[in-house]
Amino acid sequence: MPSITNHLPTAELQALDSAHHMHPFTTNDELTQKGARVITRAKGIYLTDSEGNEILDAMAGLWCVNLGYGREEMGQVAARQMNELPYYNTFFQTTHVPAIALAKELADLAPGDLNYVFFAGSGSEANDTNLRMVRTYWAQKGKPEKSHVISRKNAYHGSSVGSASLGGMTPMHEQGGLPIPGIHHIGQPDWWAEGGDQSPEEFGLARARELEDKILELGADNVAAFIGEPIQGAGGVVIPPSTYWPEIQRICDKHDVLLIADEVICGFGRTGNWFGSQTMGIKPHIMTIAKGLSSGYAPIGGSIVCDEVAEVINACEFNHGYTYSGHPVCAAVALENLRIMQEENIIDHVQNVAAPALQEALNKLGEHPLVGGVNVSGLMASLPLTPHKESRAKFASDAGTAGYLCREHCFANNLVMRHVGDRMIISPPLIITPEEIAIFADRATRALDATYADLKDKDLLKAAS
Ligand SMILES: Cc1ncc(COP(=O)(O)O)c(C=O)c1O
């Protein structure tokens, strides 16, 4: 029997946690000093911690709990599937009903001729699949040298060696000798931070054309694919200018470069359509999926693959797969998630109810002296903090100082907003109501006021020169 229960005092749980548990993306020694917040249960959009605080989760966990917490149907389906068939693989001439049904459902939901699914356990694994799949595709077509992949600085595609190499996060590349060879990074379409005096449209075109420059530099015969999140999530909710994606699509088509849309965050309703590719008007060859596929209730991801690529891959033995590819319990949970999303018209709710309410609330927050702008698409948003609104100035202090302070004030006000550098990130469960958005806005205002006062006290409201 497990001897560690929710009934232990918080301090004891924290001590045990720091004695044995290494947290991801964390300086564990610092966490030991502060003590981790112990989350004990959750319902709807609220988390409860071991001290009994009710915290509004404006991040849906890690951008994933789209249906909100505590949906009993999901647990019931998982239990039923565990009793019927808890596990079997799909490697050696076998399959099972949850994997069949989920692949069919995803092919129906995905746009165009994205009709095949290769399952993985996470977004990182799925992007590793994509890297190997696009290289194998071109090799099978007699062009093994068409193997380089182009991505973007500040992109996030996962934490495995392959997917972190595809990503463009400098602090990740600095650890463990990344990126692996054959992966290149061009500039991101972040007008707010990098657009200078250019209009968003000019800047979007200029950043897209970096792709063509890179393809010409490497030689189109050497470039397998371009990968991008329709809207960068972990990079700070970077919504590209309207000129960006059409130009990227044109360049990929012209040079016969496969287009991979990483839909791990944008997929399954986050931007107000089933997929971010639809919101941005992109026609990808492959879409990476995870997170919202199961609303985070079970670890599952995958690649949705177009006919053209699947036909080539299916003609050879693709020496790739994971023990948990298409895991029956995870697949059953994902299917139930998609069933509920359709039954409850969640996409419609995002588009017509929640997104307009969030937009209105954020417009008000945008008037706060500390907020430099509002980036929002559907239920995915960021508020860049700035000491000087008009010039979109950065702070003179180390990047992330103001954002971190604000995150702490959010926590103190029972609100989870994450910070990426000095941007506050919002990505609530898709079921959030306008009334709950009003509560979010109230807590966020209090956190912003407290951050402003704090920055003033510490003389940190200075702009970088
Ligand atoms: C766009 C994107 N791709 C891939 C991943 C990696 O997914 P996972 O953490 O499930 O491996 C993430 C995770 O945040 C993501 O945001």
UniProtKB/TrEMBL annotation:
Its cofactor is pyridoxal 5'-phosphate. Keywords: Aminotransferase, Pyridoxal phosphate, Transferase. GO terms for molecular function: pyridoxal phosphate binding; transaminase activity. The keyword Transferase applies. It comes from the Bacteria. NCBIfam families: PRK07480.1. PANTHER family: AMINOTRANSFERASE, AMINOTRANSFERASE CLASS-III. Belongs to the class-III pyridoxal-phosphate-dependent aminotransferase family. This is Putrescine aminotransferase.
